[in-house]
Amino acid sequence: MASKKKSIIVPKEKAVFWMDKNGVWHNEHGKFEHPKIIRHFNRSIQKDDLGYYLSQETDGFEEKVYFPHEDTVLFVVDFSVGEKLRLTLNTTKVMTLDPAQLFTRNDGLYLQTPEHCIKFSQNALIKLSKYMEETDNSFCLKLNQTTHTIPER
After folding, report:
1. Secondary structure E strands in 20-145
2. pLDDT classification of 4: cutoffs 50, 70, 90
């Protein structure tokens, strides 16, 4: 009979790391710099009713660390254009863009899904800019001969 792992839950008030508004991880010593650690943290992001957390399993324990973040924890870091726009998130998950879910706020581009608010990283925005057009009072996304107006919230 398999034994149940013990849970260790760290509330975000006690977490020793956090994510800034640009998706950069920090601790008391400054920004995380090691790419493998950054990838590990991003890939470990999960969400439940209490919020976003990182999870890891060790010998007999499952640890959940809820962490503070300034804006959102999910970021579009890359995309590919085909029949549909496929977005790659910092968690390595891939999703198809529904342009109706896009909005702008404070000079940022976001995507609101039923589960998450996702922000476009600076690199993704630069790459996406060739598909964007500014009108008098809004931005538009032009894909496959279709123009989508992006509302501001």
Report:
1. 25-27, 30-31, 45-48, 51-58, 61-66, 74-81, 85-89, 94-96, 102-105, 108-112, 117-120, 132-134, 139-143
2. confident
